[in-house]
Design goal:
It is a single chain. This protein is an alpha+beta fold. Helices cover 25% and strands 22% of the residues. The chain has a single domain (7-109), classed as Glutaredoxin (3-Layer(aba) Sandwich). The protein has helices spanning 34-50, 72-75, 100-109, and strands spanning 7-15, 54-62, 85-88, 93-97. Strands 2-1-3-4 form a four-stranded mixed sheet, covered by helices on one side. The two termini are 22 Å apart.
C-alpha cells in the first residue's frame, strides 16, 4: 500500500509590502490576509486526501525586498501572479494559483488515489 517515494507538493504564500517590490514585482490587491488561510486550508485538504502518497510542504515567505526571493524570482512570473501558488514534484512544475479542485485533479492524473471521494460510488 505505502509508496517509498512520496510526491512533493509545495505551497508557497507570502506577505509583501503594499508599496510593492519594484517594477518586476507587484503587490496591490493580489496580496491579502486571506492567502495564509487559503494556503493552510489547501495543505490540510491535501494531507487528508493523500497523506500516505505525498509530502506536502507549506512555505510562508515574508519579503522585504526582491533579493529575499532568491531564485524563486526567476521561477515564478511575479508580475500579476497571485499567491499562494502550488508546485508539484522535486523538480517543481508550477501548477499556478491555489485552486483545490485543480490541484486534486492533477494529483489524480499522476495516479494518486484520494482517501475520500467527492461523491459516493457504488
Amino acid at each position: 500500500m505505502g509508496q517509498e517515494l512520496k510526491l512533493r507538493v509545495t505551497i508557497i504564500f507570502a506577505h509583501v509590502p503594499r508599496s510593492g517590490l519594484g517594477p518586476r514585482f507587484t503587490a496591490g490587491s493580489c496580496f491579502d490576509d486571506d492567502f495564509a488561510s487559503q494556503a493552510y486550508a489547501l495543505h490540510d485538504e491535501l494531507v487528508e486526501r493523500f497523506a500516505d502518497q505525498i509530502e506536502c510542504v507549506l512555505h510562508n515567505i515574508f519579503f522585504d525586498n526582491p533579493a529575499d526571493v532568491g531564485d524563486l524570482a526567476d521561477r515564478i512570473v511575479w508580475d500579476g501572479l497571485k499567491l499562494p501558488v502550488v508546485f508539484i514534484g522535486d523538480e517543481p512544475e508550477l501548477v499556478g494559483y491555489i485552486d483545490e479542485p485543480t490541484v486534486i485533479e492533477l494529483l489524480h492524473e499522476r495516479g494518486l488515489e484520494s482517501n475520500r471521494r467527492e461523491t459516493e460510488e457504488p
